[in-house]
Amino acid sequence: MIYLDHNATTCLHPEVFRVMEPFLKEQFGNASSSYRLGREAKIALENSRKEVAECIGAKSHEIIFTSGGTESDNCAIRGIARNLRAKGNHIITSRIEHHAVLKTCEDLEKEGFRVTYLPVNAQGQVDPDDVRRHIGQETILISIMFANNETGVIQPVPEIGAIAGEEEIVFHTDAVQAVGKIPVHVDTLGVNLLSISGHKCHGPKGVGALYVREGTPLVPVVTGGHHEHHLRAGTENVPGIVGFAAALSIATRDLRTVSQKISQLRQRFEATIMSKIDGVQVNGMNAPRVPNTSNMSFHFVEGESILLHLDLKGIYASTGSACSTGLPEPSHVLMAMGVPARIAQGTIRFSLGKDNTDDEIEFVMESLMEIIAKLREISSLKEA
Ligand code: PLP
Predict the structure, then answer these.
(1) Which of 39, 124, 210, 213 could bridge to 153 as Cys pair (CB 3.0-4.6 Å)?
(2) Atom of ligand 1 nearest to the CA of 97
(3) Ligand 1 test: best mutation among 66, 94, 146, 149, most atoms within 8 Å of CB?
(4) Residue ranges lining ligand 1, Cβ < 6 Å
(5) Mutation test residue for ligand 1: of 65, 176, 241, the one with most atoms within 8 Å of CB
(6) 267 and 247 together in one domain
(7) 224 and 343 both lie in a single domain
(8) Left if phi > 0, otherwise alpha if psi is -120 to 50, otherwise beta: which for 314?
């Protein structure tokens, strides 16, 4: 198997499994219990909080654990909208956000909020001046992602953070696809809120975090007990949290070497494919990107057919965001970038990981040349 779908999810790092194991077995205590078993769980929980905070340059008490990226996005956006409603009802986001953000904003529109979905340029980037232009008296929140899950394109987060700071507007970024791939340091970004997910960086699924800068007017969305500084109720998933913190520490420690290796692999992959196959475009290629993602459109062929043939060869990739796989519509991200629908339909997202090798990429390139040639021979899209 050649796994090139690391933006969908990643395998658990063996070291992560090792640190989680005791908490799945004998150290099963509830971190809120006052006896020793509980206190030990609490210590592990707080150590993990410190570890996660250190990875992004935050303070321990600014980290709240959640069930993952989707919940972090929901908590951030709904938690601010609910609390600041009396101040204003306008939210600024972009057209290329993950559905965890887009659907949440659409939901808030039904509750009377006004949402501006900013466009992106052909390379998939939001213009910070556009953010500034849309800020009004009623604006209470800006939510712009850090790195796009489909193209890997990095958004001008520090620039938007500076604008949000000047205007004193709460700024959230979904950094699910950035953390562990590029350096993420909250103080250089000017963010109030930042979402992270464990399973995108070789941690377990179903766990993540929301960074909440001190003083951010967030109210909880999930209510109940006094967990997570009263910002997210529910018994903490201690094994998951311990694993998530370990995974993030390892990813942060190895970031430079891994990203260097991966970007070289991607560079070779893209250059070879573009020189050996006609009618290929790499979407977002001229924008800054996280080093692992390559979003390729092969003209005159269907992405689903390519994926099927790759699967037969044991190569796993994706036609776009994993969450929208199965939906017939072309990717909303590529549409926002102005990629024509017929070209967007022929798109494959390859997302590399730390364990991919030169030999694997070689095999993928050879397979792609063969598959694309075969599919084009029988394609009815050629005349379109
Ligand atoms: N945000 C982005 C940019 C993502 O890529 C994803 C997952 O694909 C999510 C949010 C959702 O994260 P999770 O799977 O942890 O809920």
Answers:
(1) 124
(2) 3
(3) 149
(4) 68-70, 73, 98, 100, 145, 149, 174, 176-177, 197, 208, 322-323
(5) 176
(6) no
(7) no
(8) left
Query: What amino acid occupies position 10?
Result: T
Residues 210 and 112 in one domain: yes
* Residue 50 placed within a domain: yes
| Residue 239 to residue 246: CA distance in whole angstroms | 11
Encoded tokens for 60: 């321990």
- Minimal-distance CA residue to ligand 1 atom 8: 8
Distance 72 CA to ligand 1 centre (A): 9
pLDDT the model gives residue 323:
47
Residues 78 and 152 in one domain: yes
Q: Which of 225, 253, 281 is the last residue of a domain?
A: 253
Residue 23 sits in the same domain as residue 34: yes
CA-nearest residue for atom 5, ligand 1, is 149
Give the pLDDT of residue 329: 81
Q: Are residues 168 and 231 in the same domain?
A: yes
Closest atom, ligand 1, to C-alpha of 70? 16
Tell me the residue range of the domain where 347 lies.
2-8+255-378
Residues of the chain with pLDDT under 50: 321-324, 384
Q: Name the residue among 147, 157, 194 with its Cα closest to residue 172.
A: 194
Residue 383 belongs to some domain of the structure: no
Check which CATH number belongs to the domain holding 322 and give it.
3.90.1150.10
pLDDT at 325: 53
- Which atom of ligand 1 sits closest to the CA of residue 9? 8
- Mutational test site, ligand 1, from 97, 145, 173, 200, max ligand atoms within 8 Å of CB: 200
Is 323 assigned a catalytic role? yes
**C-beta pairs of 314-317 under 8 Å, 24+ apart in sequence:** 314/1, 314/2, 315/1, 315/2, 315/4, 315/363, 315/364, 315/367, 316/1, 316/2, 316/3, 316/4, 316/5, 317/4, 317/5, 317/348, 317/349, 317/350, 317/351
Count other Cβ atoms within 10 Å, centred on residue 111. Answer: 11
Residue at 65 is within a domain: yes
In terms of domains, do 288 and 311 share one? yes
- The pLDDT of residue 382 is 65
Residue nearest to atom 14 of ligand 1 (CA): 69
How many domains would you assign to the chain? 2
